[in-house]
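cache lookup: miss for this entity combination. No prior model stored, computing from scratch. Input as submitted by user K.M.:
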Amino acid sequence: MILPIKTYPDKILKQKTKRVEKIDKEIEKLINDMIETMYASNGAGLAANQVGVAKQILMFDNGKGLKILINPKISNRRGKVIAAEGCLSFPGLEIPVKRPEKINVEFMDRQGIKKEMKAEGLAARIICHEADHLAGKTILDTLGFIRKLSARRKYLKEIKNRE
Ligand code: NI
């Protein structure tokens, strides 16, 4: 089932999500719906709170296959790269965001098995973007105060014009 995507300024995007303790039927269904929703929206990644569920689940496909990370924990961030980033919760907005070049990430897979992986480049960027969502942060929060205000104003004006 394709789920509606919550767009800024929906409050759930600012909410910290909760850890998943067990993969039950409900979580299985949520994961399947998120997969369907992400591909239907042509998104490269998706976090559970973007579809209204405050749980620590993210997924992405950087063109090398689908990855699902539950309770992700990023460590060992190395390097810095600035690149333009968009977000399904900010339709039409694209801003330059500084992200680590390489990361390590611990997570649980959809079978409930603990894993660890290294990621770099686009994969590292998407994981950091989606992990920010799970922490209640959006791409606007990567900006300094003044640039955040101006990007926010521009975005809100644009979505208002579209209504
Ligand atoms: Ni996003």
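stored under new cache key. The chain has a mean pLDDT of 96.
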